């Protein structure tokens, strides 16, 4: 009887040890590393409170906007080791002149959003560095930056994301005609008569005719 009881207790202890070991590894070996996770507007704080210095991949939604009080050099230092971003980077309505902090990013992957990068309505922006960017599986938008010559991005994005990009209303876009309005009897007069190629989506909805 004692031998049977001892055997059952030993088995239970062994199973408990296996359970504890398995669950200790779960937090570190799973797909989500919360030390490399951020979902908020970037503001100045100790770097370790944003994500761990060991991170080369960040997951989440990173917003840089008018509330962000990080300088260009601080952003560049923060992202210096980041090569992959799983999620969405939104740079909107900032006073930044140069976006150099993305220069080491190679991969932009979707995570709870169809967009991976949006650069929108930055009145002083003149430069975007995506020097090592070679892979993306989501949408990229560069729009409404009145001092930005975005023409260099056009060929790069065409090769990387195919049709999933939009560049419009910057100082210089990709050339050609930007069809950025619904077609009506009046607005169709703004379409060049020799237009032979449309890049993007053409959607026909019920007109009532």
Automatic annotation (TrEMBL):
This is Recep_L_domain domain-containing protein. Coiled coil: none annotated. Residues 1-23 form the signal peptide. Residues 55-158 form the Receptor L-domain domain. Keywords: Signal. PANTHER family: RECEPTOR PROTEIN-TYROSINE KINASE (PTHR21662:SF59). The keyword Lyase does not apply. It comes from the Eukaryota.
């Amino acid at each position: 009887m004692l031998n049977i009881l001892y055997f059952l207790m030993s088995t239970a202890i062994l199973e408990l040890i296996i359970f504890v070991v398995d669950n200790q590894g779960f937090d570190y070996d799973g797909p989500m590393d919360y030390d490399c996770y951020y979902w908020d507007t970037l503001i100045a704080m100790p770097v370790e409170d944003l994500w761990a210095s060991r991170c080369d991949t960040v997951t989440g939604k990173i917003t840089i906007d008018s509330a962000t009080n990080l300088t260009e050099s601080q952003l560049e230092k923060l992202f210096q080791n980041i090569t992959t971003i799983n999620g969405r980077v939104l740079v909107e309505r900032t006073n930044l002149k140069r976006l150099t902090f993305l220069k080491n990013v190679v991969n932009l992957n979707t995570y709870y959003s169809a967009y991976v990068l949006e650069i929108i309505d930055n009145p002083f922006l003149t430069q975007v560095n995506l020097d090592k960017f070679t892979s993306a599986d989501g949408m990229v938008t560069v729009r409404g930056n009145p001092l930005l010559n975005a023409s260099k991005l056009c060929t790069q994005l065409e090769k990387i994301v195919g049709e999933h990009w939009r560049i419009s209303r910057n100082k210089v876009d990709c050339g050609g005609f930007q069809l950025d309005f619904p077609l009506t009897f009046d607005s169709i007069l703004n379409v060049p008569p020799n237009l032979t190629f449309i890049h993007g989506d053409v959607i026909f909805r019920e007109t009532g005719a």
